[in-house]
Specification:
The chain is α+β, with helices and mostly antiparallel strands and 256 residues long. The protein has ten helices and eleven strands. Strands 1-2-3-4-5 form a five-stranded antiparallel beta sheet. Strands 6-7-10-11 form a four-stranded mixed beta sheet, with helices on one face. The longest helix has 24 residues. It binds zinc ion. The site of zinc ion has 6 residues, from loops.
Amino acid sequence: MERGFEKASSDSLPAVDLDMITAFFATNSKFLSTEIQNVKIRASKTDYGDKAIGYVQLKRDGNICIVNARIAPEHKIHSKQYKVSAVINETEEDVISCECIDCAAAEGGCKHAVAFLMWLHRRSEEVEVTSTTCYWKKPALAEVGQSTKKYPIFGAIPDGISEDYCVEVKYPSKEKTVSSYVKDGQIITKYYMQIQMQMYFAHKMKGLFCVAAPVFETTKVVDIYNIKIDKEKCEEYFNSAENYWIDLICPLFRNM
Ligand SMILES: [Zn+2]
C-alpha cells in the first residue's frame, strides 16, 4: 500500500453519481480519442470492470479523496496490471481527475480509466448491506481460474477420453499423407497443439496421439505417441491466438 493510504471498502469509497460522471466526460477532451470510442464495443465483454479491478486503496485530505487501484488487462492474463487513480472532491461532488498512470500514449485517458470510474459509480449505486466488502484484493481476472472460463473462445473435442487420457486418432488414406501428421518421429506442431488443447480443457495430464497406418484395415497397425500436458505452452499459444482474433478478426465483425 502507498504511504498515507488505507484499504478501500464498501463503506469508505467516495460516492460517484451519474451527474459527476457525465460532467467529467463532457469536460475532458482526452476521453474523446479514437481508443475510447472503441470502449463501447470492448466493454460489452461481460463485467470486465468488476473482475479486473483490485487492490483499491484510498486517502482523504479534507474534501479531497484519492482512490488508487490496479486493473488487470482484458486479454493478457499474465502481463502486468495498470495503475489507475481517481481524485474526487466530495463536498463539491466533482471528479477532479481519473487517470491511468501506465497508458502514457493516451495521456491517461484510456479505457482503464473509464473502467475504473464506472466501477466507482457501480459501487455507489449498490444497495447498502450490513456487511462491508474490502476491495484491497487481487483482481479476479488475475487469478488463474478454470481453463474454460479463462479462454471462453476456444473449444477442443478429443476423439476419445478416459479417466487419465485424451485420445486423438488420425487415419491418413495414403502413405504420403502420414508425413502431414508426423515427421521424423515428431508430431507436426498443429496437431501437437490440437491434442495439448484437448488435454488442457479436459483437465487430463496425458494424451495418446494415434496415427493409423493407411493399410490399417488389413494390418491393424497404429503408431501411438504418448504426450504429456504442457500448460505453459498451451497458454502461450492461446494468448497469441486470442490476440490475433481480437486484433484482426473482431474488427471485421464491427464493420459488418
Ligand atoms: Zn490504461
